[in-house]
């Protein structure tokens, strides 16, 4: 993974980041790197995620999925327990159909379950806590749907969860294959673990390649942002946020990475959005969103930086010659060539408007490249969390809402639920 921060420099962006600022910041990066290294070595909560390429047990994952014979996989989870697997499934060439139930919209859930051949579908139920209401509710609905068509769900269900909780109890009661969420790995940092790798193992994907890519990126971590692509990204985004660029539009130029932008959004928002700081992650897709969101990023409030991601190599499609003179310039070139030109043009157009962008390039979107990207963004996020001085691995604001909802559902006495009754309304009808 290569990072180009040239378009974030103050010679391009206003305000941008000066070379002197980066050099001063590099002293803090060195300290942060020491802290991160200590956390990795001690397998401390959160930091343990960066040890995953080394500690993940690909063999255990293959053994757990081995008895499952399926044409489709339904992932039941939410947040970090769903987005990593969805990212892998969309980016890599897996040979099963993959669906995700990560919401409790009744219409969507029933339509999806009705459309699947449940006798050929496996369930992967994922919850680190084993208590998340949406996940457990969706599982119960999916299980009943299987039972109602005479499918033995216990033969087609794999569980990934923590040491205790409802899901652990369920796996034990029905003797289901169960994988452990590795200790110290929060959901949004769990993509390179038992949480998300089973989709690759089931679909004939390259689990080892993903871990090898992550390992390659792990080897680059050093005490200087000038030598560490992940830290260059984390430190530059931090410096830009400090200068008012509080929106980070993640814009991959590859359809296969569209879900990666969703995964990134959770990572960035939930990890860094604390104590009045952070960056709002926006999800964009090149070139599609050049024709919608780009107007705002280039000419709206001066608060949005753009992260442009692209693979250097991809399969290509030639554009046929045309009889239309006005389109002659397209004939004989390729869709990939056009996409690359759009990428270069977007980057230049932002720079011409003094708006910052950062370029991330991968060799290609394969298991190795994806492993590099996912690990690199996790390391960047942890580094940014150190620079922002926020508790990267906590999410108290999310927990607040969960307690309020649980109280409303009669799941216990939670004072947060009272806030729902006390809401201020001004209804216009
Ligand atoms: O894996 P689970 O315990 O079910 O949690 C699923 C998700 O829900 C929570 O609300 C957290 O804020 C997320 O970080 C987490 O990924």
Automatic annotation (TrEMBL):
Keyword check for Isomerase: yes
GO biological-process terms attached to the record: gluconeogenesis; glucose 6-phosphate metabolic process; glycolytic process
Functional pathway: Carbohydrate degradation; glycolysis; D-glyceraldehyde 3-phosphate and glycerone phosphate from D-glucose: step 2/4; Carbohydrate biosynthesis; gluconeogenesis
InterPro entries from the UniProt entry: G6P_Isomerase, Phosphoglucose_isomerase_CS, SIS_dom_sf, SIS_PGI_1, SIS_PGI_2
Gene3D superfamilies, per the entry: Glucose-6-phosphate isomerase like protein, domain 1 (3.40.50.10490)
Gene Ontology CC terms: cytosol
Gene Ontology terms, MF aspect: carbohydrate derivative binding; glucose-6-phosphate isomerase activity; monosaccharide binding
Active site residues per record: 270 (proton donor), 291, 402
UniProt keyword Cytoplasm present: yes
EC number: 5.3.1.9
Pfam families: PGI
Subcellular location: Cytoplasm
Reaction equation(s) it catalyzes: alpha-D-glucose 6-phosphate = beta-D-fructose 6-phosphate
Keywords for the protein's UniProt record, in alphabetical order: Cytoplasm, Gluconeogenesis, Glycolysis, Isomerase
Domain of life: Archaea
Major location (coarse): cytoplasm
PANTHER family: GLUCOSE-6-PHOSPHATE ISOMERASE
Described function: Catalyzes the reversible isomerization of glucose-6-phosphate to fructose-6-phosphate.
Protein family (similarity comment): Belongs to the GPI family.
Protein name: Probable glucose-6-phosphate isomerase
Organism this protein belongs to: Halalkalicoccus paucihalophilus
Organism classification: Archaea, Methanobacteriati, Methanobacteriota, Stenosarchaea group, Halobacteria
Gene name of the encoded protein: pgi
């Amino acid at each position: 993974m290569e990072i180009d921060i040239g378009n974030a420099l103050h010679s391009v962006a206003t305000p941008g980041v000066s070379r002197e600022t980066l050099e001063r910041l590099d002293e803090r990066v060195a300290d942060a790197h020491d802290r991160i290294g200590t956390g990795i070595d001690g397998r401390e909560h959160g930091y343990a995620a960066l040890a995953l390429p080394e500690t993940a047990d690909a063999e255990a994952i293959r053994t757990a999925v081995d008895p499952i014979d399926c044409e489709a996989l339904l992932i039941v989870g939410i947040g970090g327990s769903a987005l990593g697997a969805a990212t892998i499934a969309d980016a890599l060439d897996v040979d099963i159909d993959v669906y995700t139930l990560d919401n409790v919209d009744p219409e969507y859930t029933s339509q999806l379950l009705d459309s699947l051949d449940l006798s050929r579908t496996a369930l992967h139920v994922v919850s680190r806590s084993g208590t998340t209401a949406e996940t457990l509710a969706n599982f119960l609905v999916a299980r009943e749907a299987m039972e109602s068509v005479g499918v033995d769900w216990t033969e087609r269900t794999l569980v990934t969860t923590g040491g205790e909780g409802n899901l652990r109890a369920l796996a034990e009661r029905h003797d289901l294959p169960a994988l452990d969420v590795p200790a110290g790995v929060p959901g949004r940092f769990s993509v390179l673990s038992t949480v998300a790798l089973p989709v690759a193992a089931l679909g004939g994907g390259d689990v080892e390649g993903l871990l090898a890519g992550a390992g390659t990126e792990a080897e680059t971590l050093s005490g200087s942002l000038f030598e560490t692509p992940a830290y260059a990204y984390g430190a530059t985004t931090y410096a830009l946020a400090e200068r008012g660029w509080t929106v980070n539009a993640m814009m991959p130029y590859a359809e296969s990475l569209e879900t990666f932008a969703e995964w990134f959004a959770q990572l960035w928002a939930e990890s860094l959005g604390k104590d009045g700081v952070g960056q709002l992650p926006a999800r964009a897709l090149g070139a599609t969103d050049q024709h919608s969101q780009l107007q705002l990023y280039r000419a709206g409030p001066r608060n949005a930086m753009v992260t442009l991601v692209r693979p250097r190599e991809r399969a290509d499609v030639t554009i046929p010659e045309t009889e239309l003179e006005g389109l002659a310039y397209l004939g004989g070139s390729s869709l990939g060539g056009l996409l690359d030109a759009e990428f270069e043009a977007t980057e230049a157009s932002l720079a011409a408007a003094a708006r910052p962008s950062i370029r991330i390039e991968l060799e290609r979107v394969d298991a190795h490249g994806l492993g590099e990207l996912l690990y690199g963004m996790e390391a960047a996020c942890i580094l940014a969390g150190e620079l922002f001085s926020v508790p990267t691995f906590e999410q108290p604001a999310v927990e607040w809402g969960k307690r309020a909802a649980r109280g409303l559902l009669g799941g216990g006495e939670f004072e947060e639920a009272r806030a729902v009754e006390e809401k201020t309304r001004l209804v216009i009808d």
